Here is the input.
Amino acid sequence: MDSTELQPLFNNYHRRIAKINLHFKRYLYTKINWNARIISIKGARGVGKTTMLLQHIKENYENIDQTLYASLDDLWFATHSLIDLVDWADQHGITRLYLDEVHRYEQWAETLKNIYDSYPDMSIVYTSSSLLIQDNAKADLSRRQTAYTLYGLSFREYLAFENALHVDAIPLADLLQNHVTYAMQILQEIKVAPLLESYLRCGYYPFFREVGDDFTARLRETVSVVIDTDLPAVESVSFETIQKVKKLVMIISERVPFEPNMSELWKQLSTNNELGLRMLYALDKAQILSLLTSKAKNYKFLYKPDKIFLGNANLMHVLCPMVNKGNERETFFYSQLHVGHDVKYPLKGDFLIDDTYLFEVGGRKKSFEQIADLPGSFLAVDDTEVGHGSRIPLWMFGFLY
Here is the structure.
């Protein structure tokens, strides 16, 4: 293949690299073993996967043409194959490729496995939809790749992104023990309440800065693209099912957090339990919904969730007819805790973390009444700047990653 055939890919690559800055990097950036041969980074649309790839290239290659970035939803791949690209790269001494949107490429898993086996000097970093779970792929890459998941901005990252505050993440155990000290240090630098309000409204997705007042429209469009484009690329779904998925999102948006009556829900959707659960768990993987269950989630064996949330507070402000403050608190807490922690639905209280810590989430006047005398129990309370003992300000759980 002649290099001129690759010019559209090079043009796009160079254009995107030129716009990338290195001032702010996501929490996952330093956790990735960038030396692994195949690296998978999945995540919801809009959380910054592409930016992270391009930042790594810009930071590590003095000459960016020593490597190549390409998005597999590029029209170039309508008339060329990924093997064509890898073969050209191999012939020109390029040993590392950065590939975006691999789920948009037919037989992507088999192709990556073949590249791994046939081009031993070639390494690949690729991104995909969070809908993708490796167990569904025909070619087993799980033994060959190092896999990561990127989530949206934490409250801590949002503050750094806005250049309001730069602090390290606080491990949960450390936060529970020393939250008063941390709170007093942070409050010397910022006024938390207005910044948290802004984050809950539009701070989870890094694209909020570039779109400004169009954030609501952009996020609604992002949800639609996930359902209309990403879902069919990963799951075998009909047009009718896609319409039901959209209806499901809107039904739940009107009721979140939703303790589902499954038979009533399936009746509204004119569907059965098997397809209904498939839709729910697909939306959970897509990070549009967050399913809270009393036992560990298993995407092979689907069962009724105990409670259903939207994936983050920004989605509440965009999709819900009215945002209930209590629901927003719980959604914020869940969205911050499920990154790096096991979150379950307990017999008492709101959330059980790592099978160790029990939490009730509420306003400033919240009491221990529901979880009194239970070991490892805490309150996450809103409208509070500094806590005391087992009463911890809700905003502080935004500093965990």
